Amino acid sequence: MSQPTERNRLDGEASPYLQQHADNPVNWQPWGEEAFERAREHDVPVFVSIGYSSCHWCHVMAEESFEDESVAAVLNEEFVPVKVDREERPDVDSTFMTVSQLVTGGGGWPLSAWCTPEGEPFYVGTYFPPEPRRNQPGFRDLCERITDSWADPEQREEMKRRADQWATSARDELESVPEPAVSGGDGDAGAPGADLLNEAAAAAVRGYDDEYGGFGSGGAKFPMPGRIDVLLRAYAQTGRDAALTAATGTLDGMARGGMYDQIGGGFHRYAVDRQWTVPHFEKMLYDNAELPLAYLDGYRLTGDASYARVASETLGFLDRELRHEDGGFFSTLDARSRPPESRRGDAGTEGGDGGDHDDVEGAFYVWTPGEVDAVLDEPAAALAKDRYGIESGGNFERGTTVPTLAMSVSALADEHDLSPEGVREALTAARVALFEARDSRPRPARDEKVLAAWNGRAISAFAAAGQVLGEPYAEIASEALAFCRDRLYDEETGDLARRWLDGDVRGPGYLDDHAFLARGALDTYSATGDPEALGFALDLAATVVDDFYDADDGTIYFTRDPDAAADDDDTLFARPQEFTDRSTPSSLGVAAETLAALDGFRTDREFADVAERVVTTHADRIRASPLEHVSLVRAADRVASGGVEVTVAADAVPDAWREALGERYLPGALVAPRPPTEDGLAAWLDRLGMDDAPPIWAARDAVDGEPTAYVCEGRTCSPPETDLDAALEWLAERRE
């Protein structure tokens, strides 16, 4: 019998991750029905390998196994090997990751799954070493054992039974749609309410690491901005100090540690240790979109200027290193790069790596004392080394140091007999010099996919910064939104694609693409008053309802209705929903919250009804574990409370008003600008294709031609006020 796959077919794929494997001796196939048809034709299993371009352990497994001719021979002769970019195919990733978590209790990337020709996995894992190690089988040995088992009829039947059981369990988890509670009319008794925010916050406090910040006291620490958000909201509602301490302690811990790039700004993926010192060095667009939102809210609530600085520097990193010249945002920077010349010496010298010139994790970001001395004169060099903890021996591999904030400004002033102002001035200059020197090093590779979903989150972050830090950030949000609309969206058909890469567009978009981009468009409207951005948000939200919402099940699926979308992939054995917040927020929760927020711009109640139905359908799941379902908790809170809306009737929101709104901590508040006159509003309605003014704008004209604010909460509104402070005071008194 001939090999099931005779050549590697990834050379025709645009994905940078798939291109990384296009030269492997493994005959990789892209995901699709053709690959599974080959497996059925040759009666062999399918090996599915899922990863992404900046994944460190994906690179390691590729070098150890997928570039090995002997391993490739086994995969090519006995399997149909399939490579999946999890960023392009989040539905495949979600489905197989669910199996991994159900079966092994964990997951991660690379994700490795051996499947029947029908696409159901019977063996799953993550990274496998080339040889057995620490209770892990060697990859080639494992493949050979699976081959032998598949050849035995009895064992094959057992593998198929296992695959069927696992697929059934995954479907039960991913497609779970319990019967919703019986409707009780307004304020549906079946829908969870605002109390869940405090329950989620209490759970977060219980898991808080009060020594180093973050959650959990074991090994790795992950950024969890959703947890920070519920803690800040709970403190604002209850005044409970423990909630604020957990939120600010986590913000402080991340900002002091090596997970934050102390020299260039922006966050790495996560820290491998409890102290936040050593990160996995890849930089993801979504982390650097979500975390500024948390720091901006921390600044609004506490007034701590360091939080505004971290947010500004992080967004500055995105603008500088992940932004297309026309406005959209690229996906990732790799964890690895070639070491600089200073670390290519002989083994045993400071920073020497034995002459190894291959890409090394963290090489771009770490320092040795000698490298600092080569850039800075004294006393700046000593100050910088003390500030960032850069010392001989280091805290990372090869004697290098991941910079952290190892000493405070006051401690440095005492140590070096300088004034605090003098220390700050010297450190500012030193940091600029170190950044410029670092910029000449070999750079990490950049994955230049522009993903609709991740851009949506970045747009929301820049729009929020526009309200807090100034108009230039809002302009960047507008430009990124225009990029996505021009390149990923078909105005005639209303179709949104998943990704753009150097002119190549692939799709169709998933729920996260529509929900996150709709939210970004809504936030851009709030920050700029651009009605076109609002219209785009409404169009995307309508697609969510039309194509992803299932009225019979009362939920919003991650993929379109397979019966209504002929171009969607039907190879997957489950149609997933995204309940929990992981590295990105739950698309189900963001969709429901965004629909609830947009309801005021509709003259019917469809968006609100769908949002309420979703949180009611999943009420038991949310109540059972609110901390794992933060986005759904926020959606439930919005449905229950109606949220805060600030309608401003004016030709433009006054700068002083924007500044005042930006300084106020009003989580989830929607600023809704509108023209000051009925004639101006009529022109907007015509542009948006609306026959009548929606509730959020209706009968809210400017008073005596002056900018006028209407502040609403729970569908109850203040009188029209030409003094914004008076309108906000109405809200404060209402909450007392």
Automatic annotation (TrEMBL):
Annotated spans, Disordered: 1-23, 151-192, 330-360
Span of domain Spermatogenesis-associated protein 20-like TRX: 8-167
Bias (Basic and acidic residues) ranges: 1-12, 151-174, 335-347
Pfam family, one: Thioredox_DsbH
BP GO terms, sorted: carbohydrate metabolic process
InterPro entries named in the record: 6-hairpin_glycosidase_sf, 6hp_glycosidase-like_sf, Ssp411, Ssp411-like_TRX, Thioredoxin-like_sf
UniProt protein name: Thioredoxin domain-containing protein
